[in-house]
Amino acid sequence: MRGHSEHRSHAWKPEEIYHCCVQALEGRCSRRNKTVHDYKIAIKEFLAKVEIILLNELSRALEQSNEPDRLMIARLNRALSTSYLKDDRPSLYHLPSPSRPQWKTWNLDHEDPAKMIQIVENAKELLRLPRTETYEEDFLVQLRDRSEWDARAAAEAIAIQLGTHIQHETHSSLGLSRATTPDGRSLWSSDGDLKRRGTSVDAMRRTSAGQLPLEPSVFVRDRPSVMSFRERSVPLEEAESPDHSLANGAVSTGALSTLGTHSEILQKPGSAMSTLQPYPADDTLNTTLSSNTTPVPNSSPTVASNHSGDNKRGFGESFLTRPICVQSFELPGKPPALALSDSCGGVYLTSADGEVTEHILIKNSSASSVAVDEKNSIMYVSVMTAKGRSIHVFDMAKGNKKLDAIPCPKDPKIELSRTRWITVGPRGHLFMTSGDNIKSALWVYMRSRKAWKTLKESRKSRYQYLSVAEDQSEYKAVVLLTCDAANNRLLLFVVDSQLSLINEYDLSVTYHLNDYISSPASAIVDKQGHLLVLDYANGKVQILLSGEKGVRRLKEVTFADPLLPQQALGITVLGDYVYVACFHTHEVRCTRYLENGKFR
User: What are the boundaries of the region Disordered (predicted)?
Assistant: First the structure.
């Protein structure tokens, strides 16, 4: 103002003084904001360094604590390898679970520490190792319980290190006050905050008021006798009201009854939202085979009826090492056959009787899931090597010549040890799923771009196994079936003709399967519309029969020699027989579950 005074012929007006004062104050506030912004960035970098130091220290302590146990495990594995050489088929009681974390399966150190010490000492004595009197179980770094962690005390300590202090009265001066709901939860979160906190897109859509996704009812068809699983299943997300759907023109005439029923049931608390009658109670659900139970007699594992006198129960003990997946197929002009993936031996093509017709050896790799495109005579094999996972493509019409090796997607990041399960859609599209308890994903391979497209990404789940549940041929859509082993769910994914996921359903809620199936490992739908599920926890194969008038009954498929828990993974159906890949006993077990198209 002084600088401009010499050029003025009249006095300053009060409005001009006000305006100049406002500008000066705004400049001072802006400079403070700039300074605080720089400090914010510096504090974030500082906390990132502190986080790295703490995490590195925890990792170092973990490795140091686990080192003696790892050395012991290596010695025991060498001893077990020696026993394998002496006996072609050793009988082992314990077997690591391939689909659950070890601490959920083997918890002796938590339940009985004294017994744990005794087992370790006995093993050292057998291995002639020096025995110690002490047993270190905890981390070398002793941390307080997480409930005792005080974030404010830690913030105050860091603030003192930075040369400042934190006020105890209020946070309003720092702009940290948040509105809360009556239950104490914060209303401060925005969409960006939800994304930063790792919240899924589905959760974000559910939290948005009035933004409920539409149910793709255009695919719903009326069937008077046998209804598809997707039509009578529960959507994972709530459907909109029929009025709103009609306003958007997304509902067909045949779907109005289904939507009306869903809207009525939504008004009833605790409803399962299913238009199906619950299946009647069955005494066979809680029964197990005992010494007094007479197993159902099985004939030969073949589709032909002229082998009914054969008592053969399975095959593969002479050539299989660790079978993971079994898939039935029928190429044009050839009899039905089986494709078996062996973790150490590649892929075996066999007849329905188990006679090996061809062996495809995939060197320096481990084969897991296998799928066959019957129309194009193409076989896909999920393979893991030291460099990563890929899908090998073989032309079955030209002597199983290898055509290509498609690298598996790396986004989202899923543990390399988890199997990539694959299946082929009715129009030749390759689908794949996998999960590791933290993240799961469903992909489809786009041949035009030679790249994978992520159809679904889920958190805190483990997608395992993949098969085609239903073909919506008139709409060029497909319904995929997979198991969520982490949450004990059977899920259906509806993929349209544009290879986009339009809906998903939870079968476990609809049919109350959680009461009888505790750990689904694999599931398929046969040609009669029956759902077969292999329970990894108890080794049972349950079948949800497709009955008349929409009523489904849950039964158990019995084997002459019952499957033991944690011994099988893959399952398939060929004719009237169901085949199960048992990696523990190095064989494929089978039994006849249908007779003239009806459940035995």
Answer: 170-209, 272-311
378 Cβ neighbours under 8 A, 6+ residues apart: 372, 393, 394, 395, 396, 403, 424, 428
Which segments of 436-510 does DSSP mark as H helices, in order? 507-510
Angstrom distance (rounded) from CA 304 to CA 214: 47
In the block, tokens 């302590």 appear at 61
Task: Write the DSSP symbol of residue 234.
Answer: E
pLDDT of residue 230: 54
pLDDT in the model for residue 97: 55
Listed residues 144, 163, 189: the one ending a domain: 144
> What does pTM read for this prediction?
0.54
Amino acid occupying residue 538: N
Contacts 24+ apart (CB under 8 A), 405-412: 406/430, 406/445, 408/382, 408/432, 408/452, 409/441, 409/443, 409/452, 409/454, 411/454, 412/439, 412/441, 412/454, 412/457
CATH of the domain at 566: 2.120.10.30
503: closest CA among 532, 480, 525? 480
- Which region among 132-146, 201-215, 493-507 has the lowest average model confidence (pLDDT)? 201-215
- How many angstroms separate the CA atoms of 504 and 217, rounded? 12
Q: Which residue has the higher pLDDT, 544 or 106?
A: 544
| CA separation for the pair 339, 320 (Å, rounded) | 12
Residue 67 lies inside a defined structural domain of this protein: yes
Arithmetic mean of pLDDT, 64-71: 85
Q: Tell me, yes or no, whether 198 lies in a domain.
A: no
Task: Give the distance, in angstroms, between the CA of residue 496 and the centroid of all CA atoms in the same chain.
Answer: 22
Rounded CA separation 172/175 (Å): 5
- The residue with greater pLDDT, 43 or 200, is 43
- 261 membership: H or E segment, kind and range: helix 256-266
pLDDT tens digits, residue range 506-548?
Answer: 988 888 888 888 889 999 999 988 999 999 988 999 999 877 6
Among 144, 166, 199, the domain-final residue is: 144
DSSP, residue by residue, 375-398: TTTEEEEEEEETTEEEEEEEEGGG
Of residues 392, 334, 337, the one with CA closest to residue 361: 392
Alpha helices in 87-190 (DSSP H): 102-105, 108-111, 113-127, 151-162
Mean pLDDT within 227-252: 45
Name which of 478, 510, 511, 480 is nearest 497 in CA terms: 478
398 in a structural domain = yes
Say how many domains are in the chain: 2
Pair of tokens at residue 146: 């997480």
| 561 within domain boundaries | yes
Contact of 391 with 422, CB cutoff 8 Å: yes
What share of the chain has pLDDT > 70, as a percent? 69
Q: Rounded to whole angstroms, how far apart are CA atoms 315 and 322?
A: 13
Tell me 475's DSSP state. Answer: G
Whether residue 187 has pLDDT greater than 70: no
Helix axes 151-162, 14-86, angle to 10 degrees: 120
**SS3 of residue 26 by DSSP:** helix
Spatial CA neighbour of 273 closest among 281, 291, 284, 261: 261
- Determine contact, residues 501/456, Cβ cutoff 8 Å: yes
- Is residue 331 within 8 Å of 377, Cβ to Cβ? yes
